[in-house]
User: Which sequence fits this backbone?
């Protein structure tokens, strides 16, 4: 985990729409339908009963909108939720707990805050003691005891400790998942929050565009100050998405 004072940026991490839902989902290596339900909620019918779920990440758009709608803080919230999901915990089991998390931490956008990393496991575990059935079991699976304290289970902890936090307590750099040989990040202080290589700072979009224009991976690597392995890794992830 790294904390630093963010450089001044013309981009507001809370109020500037930077990513479409499809882009945000792709950057987080997840299905865009799932990300859409996180951003805009859902309504489903079970027999004669209508079940709704409210949005749980920040979305500045509206139903049917195709362009950028997710701000940087929404991407950070999605990153944290993706970690919980990869821990095997169904989010529908912990939606009520997310409200409690925000209340207890006392912050808007708690999922994008450093306090999620430092205090979130204890809050969620305490909430599990008042919950019932499958919801309580799901929350308890998210935490373990370490040195006498409740901390997140390893898969969640590993995700969150790789985030860089700003002096305001919110994420400023998110490491994008799925890359094995390269580090691709979303950094609100760089390139309007679009994915860039940590090594060298090249925009992912520019690297891929040059390759798809017909240049070899070796040539692209030389052009952007990357290794060929880094470029090939980025191509692999892009073709997979």
Assistant:
């Amino acid at each position: 985990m790294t904390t630093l004072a963010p450089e001044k940026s013309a981009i507001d991490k809370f109020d500037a729409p930077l990513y479409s839902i499809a882009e945000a989902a792709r950057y987080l290596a997840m299905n865009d339908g799932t990300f859409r339900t996180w951003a805009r909620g859902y309504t489903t019918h079970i027999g004669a009963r209508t079940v709704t779920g409210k949005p749980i990440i920040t979305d500045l758009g509206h139903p049917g909108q195709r362009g950028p709608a997710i701000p940087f803080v929404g991407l950070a919230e999605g990153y944290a939720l993706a970690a919980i999901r990869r821990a095997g915990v169904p989010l529908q089991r912990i939606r009520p707990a997310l409200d409690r998390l925000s209340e207890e931490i006392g912050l808007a956008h708690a999922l994008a805050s450093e306090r999620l990393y430092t205090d979130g496991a204890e809050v969620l575990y305490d909430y599990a003691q008042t919950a019932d059935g499958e919801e309580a079991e799901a929350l308890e699976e998210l935490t373990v005891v370490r040195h006498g304290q409740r901390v997140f289970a390893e898969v969640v902890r590993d995700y969150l400790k790789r985030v860089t936090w700003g002096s305001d307590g919110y994420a400023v750099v998110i490491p994008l998942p799925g890359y094995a040989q390269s580090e691709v990040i979303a950094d609100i202080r760089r390139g309007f929050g679009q994915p860039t290589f940590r090594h060298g700072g090249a925009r992912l979009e520019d690297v891929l565009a040059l390759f798809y224009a017909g240049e070899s991976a070796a040539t692209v690597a030389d052009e952007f100050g990357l290794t060929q392995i880094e470029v090939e890794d980025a191509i692999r992830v892009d073709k997979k998405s």
Summary: The chain has ten helices and nine strands. The chain has one domain: 2-198. The two ends are 27 Å apart (CA to CA).
